[in-house]
Amino acid sequence: MKTSNNIKKILIIGSGPIVIGQACEFDYSGTQAVKVLKSMGYEVILINSNPATIMTDPDIADKTYIEPVDYDTALKIIEIEKPDAVLPTMGGQTSLNIAVQLEHNGILEKYGARLIGASSKSIHTAEDRGLFRTAMEEIGLETPRGGFATSVKEAEEIVKNTGFPAIIRPAFTLGGSGGSIAENPEDFSRLVEHGLKSSPVNQVLIEESLIGWKEYELEVMRDKNDQTVVVCSIENIDPMGIHTGDSITVAPVQTLTDKEYQYMRDAAFAILRKIGVETGGSNVQFAVNPADGRLVVVEMNPRVSRSSALASKATGFPIAKIAAQLAVGMTLDQIPNDITGKTMASFEPSIDYVVVKIPRWNFDKFPRTDNVLSTQMKSVGETMAIGRTFVEALNKAVRSLEQGNSGLTKLETPTDDLLNQVKTPTPERIFQITELLRRDIAPEEINKLTGIDPWFLFEIKELAELEKLLENKKYPDYDLLYRAKQSGLSDRTIARLTGCDESKIKKIRYENNIKPVYKRVDTCAGEFESSTSYLYGTYEKEDESQISKKEKVIILGSGPNRIGQGIEFDYCCVHCVMQLHEMGFESIMINNNPETVSTDYDISDKLYFEPLTREDVTHIIEKEKPAGVIVQFGGQTPLKLAKHIQTLGIPIMGTSPESIDMAEDRKLFGQILRKNGIKIPDWTTASNAEQAVQGALGIGFPVLVRPSYVLGGRGMEIAYNADDLESYIEKAALVTPEHPVLIDKFLEDAFEFDVDAISDGETTLICGLMQHIEEAGVHSGDSSCVLPPYMLSDLDRELILDQTKKLSKIFNVKGLMNVQFALFEGKIYVLEVNPRASRTVPFVSKATGIPWVKIATRVIAGERLKNIDIPQNNNKKR
After folding, report:
1. Rounded to an integer, what distance in angstroms lies between the CA atom of residue 226 and that of residue 278?
2. Which CATH architecture has domain 751-867?
3. By CB atoms within 10 Å of each CB, which of 11, 15, 88, 589 scores lowest?
4. What residues form DSSP beta bridges with 693?
5. R_g of the chain computed on alpha carbons
6. Which of the listed CATH numbers 3.40.50.20, 2.30.40.10, 1.10.10.10, 3.40.980.10 matches domain 517-653?
């Protein structure tokens, strides 16, 4: 339903490539906005350059420009399309900056377009630190003391008033980019200079330090009739001084009195009115001094933000969708709540559970990087968990990180060292705090060292006391075991504490009927019946998951983003779900990433927001009894569970786990390819450093080293001589007869190629053949590539395609596969075979215009390629 606003065509500016601080949460927001505006009858034009997003699918917007997201491109598209309106609030800081520039330069006025969702004045007032400070003073709200500088000299004058430590915040940046904390005058000038260079307007804000203050966020919305709602309140467990993207957060807020919360709520609404946000959502951040209760406004974002995605998934309230509707003139009391089907969006969400978000870092990939957390965001992803209590949600979130922790892992570090380490915020701090509480260090002392509110510390202390009750209890009684499960402890953790096998704990639980039930995320704390199946697990009596009689398929998602496993795999999961729905299956998604499209409540028929662990997935499978489980679209995360799922008697749909293992086991892989006459680089294995050097000398340096068991997160390295090899084995890998190191001849200066293909076991279809721009030795995920190849003879091309088809039969592939080849000294070598979806699938799909994941899903479900009508594309040599 269009509103009477004379708007017919809307341009949405996307966020472009994923960067730290601006990730796939903007695919979630953009997709929601495009879909709802199209459903209302608007023509939607999209600019975005990220091929791995759902929003750039050809059937999402009416017209999609996969072009650079910058001012010049936006200008050209406005000249061509002549939109009536531009919606800049769905593409992060990138979109806002472009929109402000377009309006400032008179482009929108020239072509008869206007900004919707946020005016340039409101954007500028919120983003310009000076204007924002003045605006807050005018409504009686404090901001941190400080001032603005456009030079080091000006900054040095300001810091005389604020003192040290001083916070340096560049204007108009994302993710705290360029921000820092100066502890002394010696560092100050250097850090200010860096901040000025980071700011597109050459401006920094110098502020008094709020380090140690409590930090809160409110996600709020306002419509043109001045109706306002708080969608979600969020509290950072970590105090100020750590970027909110790097903080563990909890919703709703836990440590404010009702009076304090109501004051903060009123302040947030006053800020929206003053800044001029009339048609959409905003994120407002506050800091509270725990010593005297002084409240200051830190900042506000007049757009959909990273926290908006978290708030949406935490409450079930689709912020981006509703913000888009408000932007075109609807009001909150006109927009139905999809989840209840009975209330309107003006009915403020209320939740009867606790949500915990934990960031995911990848410092293991960059061992020389400083892992100290500060005002500049460093995390690359995040996971979210839902529980009835804080500790239940915290434990579930920790194991959702997929970093080998079944819970808050016990540490062996001496207490004095822990007391020193815990002062510095790092990704390990939550584990250090828990260990100190286990050792009876008082919460009050830890509060002094960390600034973390005592409420959270006492909650974790209770968990530590529960762990002590479980220690060495070979047969925990019903009450103790039930309490442990209600606190979010996994069977693996309970087994470690009690000293018995995990299988025994499960057996005792099942004998006593201690199994999880599933509750609905309903936006209204159970006050109204929910019409959607958005579920989380907990240990209570009433189960709200309704089991249908339809044929079901479970899709395992990819979990939190991390380097090597990101939005590309969520794209694949979403396309799989869409196709299953078209085929009449009930699609059930299990995932825990709040940033993604796959965890939107209206994508799958049923969404379980749960950890992707053996125990948690088993419970859902036992409850739903699906016809099969699909594991090949979520990266490595689901593959690790495939064999276990088979033991439950549930088929793995598509390529079998045995075939996947054949490709993953480098030694077996090499033997199979040699047996079938397919060239691979010379290789050997070694059980110690001496064997490794001898083997490498036989092959010839340089060599590529692939340890089968890795310490420090190092997967592989190139060794150019014996010293390199010995050093690497000593520092990076545990090498034993059970865990040999694998050594391949490194094909230096080779040209590399990627092939994506689909096979049904008989026929293999080539989706795309790509050539890497960078030389061999650069990881495929870090290499630019082109499709079709720019330098490949017809003979070599045919050999690559023939070998791909041969490999699909050898590994009995059913679904997608990816093969990496190298052209070295005139010969074609196979480097790697992945019988699953790869990160290049979205790129190939967009480049060819063919939805390859949907075709692969049909094959996985049993169809033959010869019976599928596959669209043609213009790329004849794909």
Report:
1. 7
2. 2-Layer Sandwich (3.30)
3. 589
4. none
5. 28
6. 3.40.50.20
CATH of domain 145-208: 3.30.1490.20
Q: Report yes or no: 253 and 233 within 8 Å, Cβ to Cβ.
A: yes
Q: Return the residue matching tokens 């708007």.
A: 7
- Mean local confidence (pLDDT), 269-277: 93
DSSP 303-334: S--HHHHHHHHHH---HHHHHHHHHTT--GGG
Residue ranges of alpha helices (H) inside 758-875 are 794-810, 841-848, 852-860
Contact status, residue 66 vs residue 51, Cβ threshold 8 Å: yes
Q: 682-745 belongs to which homologous superfamily?
A: ATP-grasp fold, A domain (3.30.1490.20)
pLDDT in the model for residue 240? 93
Cβ(206)–Cβ(162) below 8 Å:
yes
pLDDT confidence tier of residue 174, bands split at 50, 70 and 90 = low
Question: What are the structural domain ranges in the chain?
Answer: 9-116, 145-208, 214-349, 357-511, 517-653, 682-745, 751-867
Q: Tell me the per-residue pLDDT of 218-261, one tens digit each, with 9 for 90 and over.
A: 999 999 999 999 999 999 999 998 998 999 999 999 999 999 99
CA atoms of 395 and 398, how far apart (whole Å) = 5
Opening angle at CA 622, ends 620 and 628, nearest 5:
85
Which range among 1-10, 150-159, 282-291 shows the weakest confidence by mean pLDDT? Answer: 1-10
Helices (H), 454-603: 454-470, 478-486, 491-498, 502-511, 567-582
Global confidence as pTM: 0.93
State yes or no: pLDDT of 670 exceeds 90: no
For residue 845, CA distances in Å to 46, 766, 866, 871, 877 come to: 18, 12, 20, 11, 14
Among residues 330, 872, 224, 337, the alpha carbon closest in space to that of 602 is found at 337
> Does residue 105 register a pLDDT over 50?
yes
Amino acid present at 285: Q
Are domains 145-208 and 751-867 of this chain identical in fold? no
**Domain 214-349, CATH homologous superfamily name and number:** ATP-grasp fold, B domain (3.30.470.20)
Mean pLDDT score, 584-590: 97
Over residues 143-150, mean pLDDT: 89
- 175 — pLDDT class (breaks 50, 70, 90): low
How many angstroms separate the CA atoms of 400 and 382, rounded?
Answer: 9
Per the DSSP assignment, residues forming a β-bridge with 219 are 232, 283
The residue ranges of DSSP E strands in 21-96, in sequence order, are: 43-47, 63-65, 85-87
The CATH class of the 357-511 domain is mainly alpha
